[in-house]
Amino acid sequence: MRTAIFWLTTGLFSLAMVASGFGAVSGGMAEVYADMGYPVYFATLLGTWKLLGALALVTPGFPKVTEWAYAGFAFTLTGASFSHLAGGDGLAAALPPLVMLAVASASYFLRTAPEFEAAAQLTPAP
Predict the structure, then answer these.
(1) For the chain, which has fewer Cβ within 10 Å, the N-terminal or C-terminal residue?
(2) pTM for the full predicted model
(3) Number of independent structural domains in the chain
(4) In angstroms, rounded to a whole number, what is the distance separating the alpha carbons of residues 8 and 12?
(5) Angstrom distance (rounded) from CA 102 to CA 111
(6) Which residue in 29, 48, 53 sits closest to 39, CA to CA?
(7) Domain that holds residue 72
(8) Over the chain (126 residues), what is each successive 10-residue block's mean pLDDT?
(9) Does any domain span residue 125?
(10) How distant, in Å, are the alpha carbons of 12, 102, 113, 114 from that of 106?
């Protein structure tokens, strides 16, 4: 059951990031980024990282890359929420990134034990 919920949350989150990434890379979200004061190239950069991060989440065997992808998404989603609030978009625009962060967190904490063990073996002891 845990594995099924893991793949459900990981799949939903990855699909959302792929959709968002394609929207950013294709220029469909350029106006949104510009309205928040970001340069247009920032959308392309973030979109590319979202696509690569989503790929990292669904590709087994690279636990360290997966860890970095989860961390990158946490930074991206909290930054998006803060950007909406700081830009005056209100709570309605700031909540969706936080909801996606909750889905990503569920995916992260539901990972299987072998993935955790593999990540622990790559981390040097203090």
Answers:
(1) C
(2) 0.84
(3) 1
(4) 6
(5) 14
(6) 29
(7) 2-116
(8) 90 97 92 88 95 95 93 96 92 96 95 59 58
(9) no
(10) 11, 6, 15, 17
